[in-house]
């Protein structure tokens, strides 16, 4: 059990001493300064001390962060309001008020808790004077001597404590407003990040869709190309087959005619008239018939070898493809391109 020594006497700690320990902040080691905040681990802190500790480890408090309890090291996830979003412990604040009232009422002269060390600023003009009033005209704190004899003697002044409370409240409200504004900015940043991800995803889908459509166009063109090439090849084979058949027939006729010509020439070379006349009549008839047949042979029509009718007009398609863009394609443009092609 803890004991305290006074001179040569030893006495146990009083209930007030135990209460003082319970009302001490684990950060500043002094009595809690209101407002007091309570963590989920049930430990209490001065909000100002917690804010200083949090800001030193989390400079961007508007974006939230993790606060570690200095007593038990329990980690608390803070929202966008930071330490200001922690719950106040009104019970502890009320106990502090009652304790202070009890201390003042008892008139105790014992020093129970050491006060927070604070060095009051002194006036620069009057080095022995503490700054104890506030010049509302010049908006600066000053001392009483400056008001009586110094540069603020014609200015309006107010008690330092009242101005302190007023401006402290204004600063607290400004902090709350700034925290709320930072929260809105964080929300906007989150929206921008979500929008960026959505743009990237949508662009990827659009690229994939465009590639698929062009692949489909390529497939359609390749299929149509194959069909048209087959048509050309089919007619080519038919004409070549017809020409080869005629050539074969002409070759056979030529061979027959050549044999007949050789026979007729040999008949002319025979010296006997009787022998010649016996063969000449038939030869003359065969020669004339062969000559007539050669004149009446089937021949390909003029231009039979041409393939100009397989010329493909693609200018209107090229025009449409050149104007192809995102959006709905108007059928009128395709019709206009066809009309221009026909006029040309």
Structural notes for this entry:
It contains eight helices and ten strands. The protein is mainly α and 344 residues long. It has a three-stranded antiparallel sheet with strand order 4-3-7. It has a three-stranded antiparallel sheet with strand order 9-8-10. A hairpin with a 2-residue loop joins strand 1 (4-6) and strand 2. Helix 7 (315-322) packs antiparallel against helix 8 (331-343). The two termini are 114 Å apart. Mean pLDDT is 79; it is low at 1-10 and 108-117.
Quick structural overview:
InterPro entries: Bbox_C, COS_domain, E3_ligase_FN3/SPRY, Trim54_Bbox2_Zfn, Znf-RING_euk, Znf_B-box, Znf_RING, Znf_RING/FYVE/PHD. The chain has 344 residues and is mainly alpha-helical. 57% of the residues lie in helices and 9% in strands.
Element layout with pairings:
Blueprint: E1 4-6, E2 9-11, H1 15-22, E3 36-38, E4 44-46, H2 47-57, E5 65-68, E6 75-78, E7 87-88, H3 90-106, E8 133-135, E9 140-142, H4 144-148, E10 157-159, H5 160-269, H6 273-295, H7 315-322, H8 331-343
Antiparallel strand pairs: 1-2, 3-4, 3-7, 5-6, 8-9, 8-10
Helix pairs in contact: 5-6, 7-8
Catalytic activity: S-ubiquitinyl-[E2 ubiquitin-conjugating enzyme]-L-cysteine + [acceptor protein]-L-lysine = [E2 ubiquitin-conjugating enzyme]-L-cysteine + N(6)-ubiquitinyl-[acceptor protein]-L-lysine
Keywords: Coiled coil, Cytoplasm, Differentiation, Metal-binding, Microtubule, Muscle protein, Nucleus, Transferase, Ubl conjugation pathway, Zinc, Zinc-finger
Main location: cytoplasm
| Helix/strand structural class | mainly alpha
Summarize the main sheet. Answer: 3 strands, antiparallel
CATH class label of the domain at 13-105: Alpha Beta
The CATH homologous superfamily name of the domain at 13-105 equals Zinc/RING finger domain, C3HC4 (zinc finger)
Number of alpha- plus pi-helical segments: 8
Record field, number of beta strands: 10
Question: Helix and strand string, N-terminal first?
Answer: EEHEEHEEEHEEHEHHHH
Instruction: Please list the strands of the largest sheet in the order they lie side by side.
Output: 4-3-7
Low-pLDDT parts are 1-10, 108-117
Rg: 57 Å
- Rounded average pLDDT: 79
β-strand percent reads: 5-15%
Share of helix, binned: 55-70%
State the separation between the terminal residues, measured CA to CA: 114 Å
Shape annotation: rod-shaped
Indicate the CATH topology of the domain at 13-105: Herpes Virus-1
CATH architecture of the domain at 13-105: 2-Layer Sandwich
GO biological process, one term: cell differentiation
Pfam family, one: zf-B_box
Coiled coil: 182-209
Protein name: Tripartite motif-containing protein 54
């Amino acid at each position: 059990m803890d004991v305290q020594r006074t001179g040569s006497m030893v006495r146990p700690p009083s209930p007030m001493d135990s209460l003082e320990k319970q009302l001490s902040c684990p950060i500043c080691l002094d009595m809690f300064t209101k407002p007091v905040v309570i963590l989920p681990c049930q430990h209490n802190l001065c909000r100002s001390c917690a804010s200083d500790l949090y800001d030193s480890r989390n400079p961007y408090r508007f974006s939230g962060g993790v606060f570690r309890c200095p007593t038990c090291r329990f980690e608390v996830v803070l929202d966008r309001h930071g330490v200001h979003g922690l719950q106040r412990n009104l019970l502890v604040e009320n106990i502090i008020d009652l304790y202070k009232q009890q201390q003042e009422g008892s008139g105790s002269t014992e020093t129970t808790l050491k006060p927070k060390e604070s060095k009051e600023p002194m006036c620069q003009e009057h080095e022995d004077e503490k700054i104890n009033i506030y010049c509302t005209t010049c908006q600066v704190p000053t001392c009483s001597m400056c008001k009586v004899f110094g540069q603020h003697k014609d200015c309006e002044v107010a008690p330092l404590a009242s101005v302190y409370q007023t401006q402290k409240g204004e600063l607290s409200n400004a902090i709350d407003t700034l925290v709320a504004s930072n929260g809105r900015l964080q929300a906007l940043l989150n929206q921008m990040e979500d929008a960026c991800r959505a743009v990237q995803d949508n662009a990827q889908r659009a690229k994939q869709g465009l590639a698929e459509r062009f692949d489909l166009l390529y497939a359609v063109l390749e299929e149509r190309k194959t069909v048209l090439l087959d048509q050309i090849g089919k007619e080519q084979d038919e004409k070549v087959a017809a020409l080869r058949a005629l050539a074969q027939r002409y070759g056979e006729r030529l061979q027959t005619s050549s044999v007949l010509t050789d026979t007729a020439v040999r008949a002319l070379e025979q010296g006997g008239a009787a022998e010649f006349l016996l063969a000449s009549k038939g030869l003359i008839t065969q020669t004339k018939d062969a000559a007539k047949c050669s004149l009446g042979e089937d021949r390909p029509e003029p231009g039979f070898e041409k393939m100009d009718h397989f010329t493909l007009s693609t200018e209107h398609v090229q025009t449409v493809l050149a104007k192809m863009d995102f959006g709905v394609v108007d059928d009128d443009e395709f019709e206009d391109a066809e009309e221009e092609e026909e006029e040309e």
